[in-house]
Amino acid sequence: MYFNAMPQDNDQNYNAIYKLYCDIARYTISSNKLENLQDLQKRLRQEQKINLLEKHENQTLGGGVLNLAVKWNNPRVVEFLLININKEQLKLDLNSKEYKEYQTLKKKAEKIAIKNGNSEIIELFTDYKEIPNKTKKFNTDSKLCVETIAQNRENTFYDINSKIVPHYQTRRDFRIALGKDYMGGIVTGVLVVAAIMHLSDAFKAVFGALAILVAIGTGLHIKNSTIPSYVEMQENSVKCASQQRGYA
Q1: Which end of the chain, N or C, is surrounded by fewer C-beta atoms within 10 Å?
Q2: Residues 110 and 178 in one domain
Q3: Which of 141, 161, 181 is the C-terminal boundary of a domain?
Q4: Where are the alpha helices (DSSP H) in 48-137?
Q5: CB-based contacts of 188: which residues, under 8 Å, 6+ apart?
Q6: d(Cα 183, Cα 174) in Å, to the nearest integer?
Q7: CB-based burial label for 70 (10 Å; 0-12, 13-18, 19+)
Q8: Which pTM does this prediction carry?
Q9: Residue 42 has what pLDDT?
Q10: What digits encode the pLDDT tens for the residues 204-242?
Q11: Which of 161, 194, 216 is the last residue of a domain?
């Protein structure tokens, strides 16, 4: 879901974050997409420069918007923000307070993405994870150079993809398998009741046979799918916990 309901309270800090999120989301899905923050500023017809490090209580404007985009699984907004954050970092000294603030807000949002298990969002953080060498030339009108993206993918995304994402995928597979088993049990029960209650002996035989077949199928599914999914989920949960501790 890309848009959630506007908060009804008087939390002006959250409202400012939500408003900027909606503005970016609206223009990133239009045919004439946003290029940068300056482009957004012009479209909003506002004189004040958009400052992603502007403080809103215990978080920055950019950090709050990025967190919303991650929580609501909006890759367009996430990518737009990461591109522009990296552009701003290119202007800063590596040891400056502002540069480190940008790094911190990206890391916080990345942890949310990892927790949610959205591989598309996690991959974006891998692509725009950091600027290892500011002397390299980047395409500041769109994405970072292909070399940096490829390097980040090779060095970073492999660990995330091989340890964290599978945990959420196997957990989802296990839940799907349990749902199928549940439905198989329900169908078996209905067929058994039908076999008992029906007046015709022929129908009793048919319903009884179907109940047996469904029960056998459900049992085989539990053996071949549900139990292996549970075992795999437990194994991946250990790897996931270990990997997430590395990001703490």
Answers
A1: C
A2: no
A3: 161
A4: 61-71, 75-90, 97-116, 119-127
A5: 211, 214, 215, 218
A6: 14
A7: buried
A8: 0.51
A9: 84
A10: 899 889 989 999 999 898 888 888 877 877 776 655 555
A11: 161
